[in-house]
Amino acid sequence: MIQDLSVTREEIDRVDSQIVELLEKRMELAAKVAEYKIATGKPIYDRERELDKLDKLGAMADNEFNARSIRELFLQIMSVSRRFQYRVVGNQDHEIDKLFVPVDSLDIHEDTKVVYTGVPGAFAEMAMTTYFGENIAAVNVKEFSDTAKMVAEGEADYGVLPIENSSAGFVNGIYDLLERYRLSIVGEQKIKVNQCLLGIPGTELEQVRTVFSHPQGLMQAREFLEQRDWKQVSMANTALSAKKVWDDGDKTQVAIASERAAQLYNLAVLNPQLNLSDSNTTRFVIVSNRKEYVKSANRVSISFSLPHKSGTLYNILAHFIFNNVNMTSIESIPLTGRQWEYCFFVDFEGNLGDNDVRNALKGIMAETEDFRILGCFVSQE
Q1: Which one of 1, 120, 254, 277 is separated from 152 by 20 to 30 angstroms, measured CA to CA?
Q2: CA-closest candidate to residue 257, choices 114, 162, 120
Q3: Given 123, 282, 304, 348, which residue is catalytic?
Q4: Which tens digit of pLDDT belongs to each residue from 166-205?
Q5: Residue 284 among the catalytic residues
Q6: Residue 13 burial (CB count, 10 A)
Q7: Which of 284, 304, 322, 377 is catalytic?
Q8: Domain residue ranges in the chain
Q9: Does the annotation count 282 as an active-site position?
Q10: What CATH number does the domain located at 1-92 have?
């Protein structure tokens, strides 16, 4: 005889109540474990012990399906337990304060040296003057790596680097530079980008054979360029492309750059808007070799690597969810010499002084490799 469904559901409710009661008891015990680990200096996360316990719990099941279910269930219970323990430890641990120093404002004055990549008229120069103003000591270099190196070696106080475009995505190689030179992100500046087609005055489109621009500029104008059989040549930045067209004086060559670049290099604007979107925006980061952040900062950027194993990224992202921290972006790049392993770059809302942020970082720091706080800064919404 089949049991009435309502009776079965009542039994399930009773079992669920027992599970809740036991889970709360387990969390009380987890708090005691955290207190012990605080007193003895032992780490919260013991991966080998957890894997061994999961195997033992799975072995208690009557069949393989239940064994997998039990391992999955207790994997989550242990994960939640660890996050709770990180909260307990985090309230007494001020490790973040050892890594970054809060300041009222960045030290900016007329002798502040700021470096950007490109030549006058580059979008990076626009970002620099918008963020710092005109009353600084500005210097320009050819390559993004030159900007990073100058800041890292103390030859410049701050650097300006493009990191993301709303149409073309993340700028290739920038995150790698932040890692290689151990730079900190201390600020952000968004610049609305309007890509124009520039040429020598009197140039007709029928004459054009070659177009120069930064790869991002070419990508942002891809719909326009797909309709033309022009040779596309990548340059270090858009303003340098405009300068080359002017220096060469060749009407078969054009550049994709800003209207300001056209004015600086006496070029004609052959098309005032090539980008696909009216809201095309590039996000620049302000970098420093100092580990500091302004107290009003509302965005944190971190990086870490993970072993190539199932569920590792999920478990890390769960720290954001558990602590009510809103992640805004994630990017990954392959790790050199470590096949199928990646370095992840994550931005999220918050400040290094926030308890929720500290609790999330405490867990992520303990459960990842190559962890680094890239910076804490004011983000322009």
Answers
A1: 120
A2: 120
A3: 282
A4: 877 888 889 999 999 999 999 999 998 889 999 999 999 9
A5: yes
A6: 10
A7: 284
A8: 1-92, 196-271
A9: yes
A10: 1.20.59.10
